[in-house]
Amino acid sequence: xxxxxxxxxxxxxxxxxxxxxxxxxxxxxxxxxxxxxxxxxxxxxxxxxxxxxxxxxxxxxxxxxxxxxxxxxxxxxxxxxxxxxxxxxxxxxxxxxxxxxxxxxxxxxxxxxxxxxxxxxxxxxxxxxx
Length: 130
Ligand SMILES: CC(C)(COP(=O)(O)OP(=O)(O)OC[C@H]1O[C@@H](n2cnc3c(N)ncnc32)[C@H](O)[C@@H]1OP(=O)(O)O)[C@@H](O)C(=O)NCCC(=O)NCCS
Hints:
Blueprint lengths: L1 H7 L13 H11 L2 E7 L2 E9 L2 E7 L8 H11 L5 E6 L3 H9 L3 E5 L11 E6 L2
Antiparallel strand pairs: 1-2, 2-3, 4-6, 5-6
The structure holds coenzyme A (COA).
């Protein structure tokens, strides 16, 4: 789902690591996570979210299932266990995701030139207060 969503959104910067390393990377983030959920339809995965320390580390929906409320449903799960609010980083160029989070009540708190992330891609910190 991670690789499919990134391949579909062609503006995404190239992966900072080899595609084969994504599985082990996400498995490690999952092991460290406070919560993670997978949305499914008849057992077929539609999307997932990984939450750690009030931070949404990853939220991805399969391209063919986007704009059907899957992201909002996953976000609702994350909100329900986050009385202190939520934060995340999003690439500035990720306009669909920024529209999604704005609609979900997040505000854009800080923008960077990307020098602090692996992709060297300008990003923005989004926050939601419970
Ligand atoms: C961002 C993402 C998680 C949203 O999940 P989703 O299941 O598509 O979102 P929902 O169906 O719950 O909400 C849809 C709303 O989000 C916004 N949105 C989502 N995709 C959009 C797009 N391509 N263009 C404009 N707005 C978009 C709109 O407000 C939309 O409502 P509308 O369809 O009535 O206009 C999903 O598009 C995705 O996985 N994107 C690729 C990976 C990614 O960018 N993850 C976030 C990294 S920070």
